[in-house]
């Protein structure tokens, strides 16, 4: 038996690029009959969230980032576990986002 159960999330994601080069990624939790809760997983919940990657005029190698996220991990997790997990998780997210934006701009 695990002390901490794995989490799963089911989100719908919209990605859009605007004429000025701004990129949007927006998501929210959904329930879908093809994605029922799985045994041995705790279903987490993402409230409406996303990020804007906004080009900085005159600085092609820089991007302004506006992001907003609110996640309910579901189940019971001690605050110490959340505090130790989230910094690495968020750092990984922004690292992957940097790679994705560079790939899309190429």
From TrEMBL:
Q: Which GO terms describe its biological process?
A: cholesterol import
Which superkingdom, per the lineage? Eukaryota
Q: Name one GO molecular function term.
A: cholesterol binding
What Pfam families does this protein map onto?
START
Protein keywords: Lipid transport, Lipid-binding, Transport
Q: What does this protein do?
A: May be involved in the intracellular transport of sterols or other lipids. May bind cholesterol or other sterols.
Q: Which PANTHER family match?
A: PROTEIN CBG07384, STAR-RELATED LIPID TRANSFER PROTEIN 5
Q: What protein am I looking at? A: StAR related lipid transfer domain containing 5
What organism is the protein native to? Buteo japonicus
């Amino acid at each position: 038996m695990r002390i901490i159960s794995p989490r799963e999330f089911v989100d719908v994601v919209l990605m859009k690029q605007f004429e000025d080069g701004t990129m949007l990624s927006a998501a929210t939790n959904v329930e879908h009959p093809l994605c029922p809760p799985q045994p041995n997983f705790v279903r987490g919940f993402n409230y409406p969230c996303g990020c804007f990657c906004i080009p900085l005029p005159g600085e092609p190698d820089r991007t302004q980032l506006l992001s907003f996220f609110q996640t309910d991990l579901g189940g019971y997790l001690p605050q110490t576990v959340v505090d130790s997990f989230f910094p690495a998780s968020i750092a990984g997210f922004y690292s992957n986002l940097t790679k994705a934006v560079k790939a899309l701009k190429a």
